[in-house]
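Can anyone check this?
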Amino acid sequence: MLKTRIITAAAILIGLLTAVFSASGAVWTLLTLGLALLGVYEWGTLIQLNRNQRNVLLATALASGLLLAYMHMTPLVRYQGYAMFAFLGLASLFWLIFAPAWLITRRSFSNKFTMAALGLLLMFATWIGLVGLHAINPMLLLGVVATVSIADSAAYFAGKKFGRHKLAPEISPGKTWEGVLGALSAVTVYGIVLCYYQHFSPWLIVCLWLLVILSIIGDLVESLLKRKANLKDSSQLLPGHGGILDRIDGFMPTLPLTLFLIYLPLFHF
C-alpha cells in the first residue's frame, strides 16, 4: 500500500511540475478546470446524488467554469473580477467560520441542492486559487502546495509512529494530535529554511502554521462527508490515494484563502 502510494505521489508530482512550468496560462486554466470538474463529480457522490443528479451537477459546473474562464471574451468581462473575488471570499468565510462549526456539531444536511451549491462554490474557489496563484508566480503556488504536502506526509508518518491521542475519533479515527504536531514541526523546519535562504520575515512561519490548520480542517470536512456517505474514499481514481478530493482536500481551504488575502488589499469595490 505504501509503495503504491509513493508511486502515485511521484507521478502526480512529475505531472504537476511539468504542467506548472510548461503550460501556458490558458492551458493551465483548462487543465485545472478539468481537475475541478472531477472534484465536483466526486462531491456529488459524497452527498449521495444519483447518477442523473451528478451528471446535471457536472454539466452545470462545466458551463459555469467555461463562462468564468472566457468571461473576458464576452460583454460580461467587467464582472469577471467581481465573480472570482466573490467565490474566494465566500469560500474563505466557509473555511474560517462555518467549517469549524460544522466539524464540532457534525450536523447532517439533507438538502442536496444546498450541498451541491456548496460543492460548486468550494471547487470553483479552489480552481480560481490554482489559476490565480499560478498567474502571480508559479513558485508561490508551489510554495503553498509544498506546505500542505509536507504537513500531510509528516502527519501521516508521525501519526503512524507516535499516534496515541485521537484528534477527531468520530470523524476520522486515524488522525491524531501527534500527527498534527508532526505536521507543524515539519512545516516549521520548512519555514525556517525558506526564511534563511530567501530572507523572508519570520512571520512566514506563522502563516505556514495557519495553512497547516486550514489543511487539517479541509481534510476533516471531507472525512465527515465520507463518513456520512459510508465511503472510505471519494473514488478509486488515484491508486493508494483514493480520489481527487482525497488528494486535494487540504488545498481546498488553503489555495482560495491565500489568493483572497493577496487580492483583498488591492480590490476596489
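Reply from J.R.: I decoded it. The mean pLDDT is 92.
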